[in-house]
Design goal:
Blueprint: E1 13-15, E2 21-23, E3 31-36, H1 43-54, H2 56-61, E4 64-70, H3 74-84, E5 89-92, H4 97-101, E6 105-110, E7 113-118, E8 121-125, E9 131-135, H5 143-156
Parallel strand pairs: 3-4, 4-5
Antiparallel strand pairs: 1-2, 3-8, 6-7, 8-9
Length: 157
């Protein structure tokens, strides 16, 4: 069952960079941003990741953890994270379990060919594990700032 706004997100466990196992239940007490992106080291995905990197101290100040998710493997993630100096972990979702939970696999077109790919999407989960905001079909410019403002808003609520 896919996630729904203002409802608890089902617990999940996923392998991430730095040998970290990410479990939503273990993150209770902190807000969580999960952003899905199509592929490591591509222009839009790099720009988006850099935005989260550059605003990471502000996310930390807002009691918010950030995780990037794509279907790439951990080796690709480790290289991408290292090259871009991301201070947050990247989750490998090769089996698409998280992609399905968050319903981000969509029919896409590239050069006239159709394929199933990751729709750039971001989700903000509050410290109790409830989905508070979602952004689907994300356009990168200005996106990270909007997510940060929403995360900061959760701390005032």
């Amino acid at each position: 069952m896919a996630v729904t706004l203002d409802q608890p997100v089902a617990d999940f466990s996923a392998q991430a960079t730095s040998g970290v196992q990410v479990s939503l239940a273990a993150l209770k007490g902190q807000h969580v941003v999960i952003y899905f992106y199509p592929k490591d080291s591509t222009p839009g995905c790099t720009t988006e990741g850099q935005g989260f990197r550059d605003h990471y101290p502000a996310f930390q100040a807002a009691n918010t953890l950030v995780f990037g998710v794509s279907r790439d493997g951990l080796k690709s993630h480790e290289n991408f994270k290292c090259k871009q100096e991301f201070p947050f972990e990247l989750i490998s979702d090769k089996d698409e379990a998280l992609c399905q939970l968050f319903d981000v696999i969509k029919l896409k077109k590239l050069y006239g060919k159709e394929y199933m790919g990751v729709d750039r999407s971001t989700f903000l989960i509050d410290k109790n594990g409830v989905l508070r905001q979602e952004w689907r079909g994300v356009k990168v410019p200005g996106h990270v700032e909007a997510v940060l403002a929403a995360a900061q808003g959760l701390n005032k609520a």
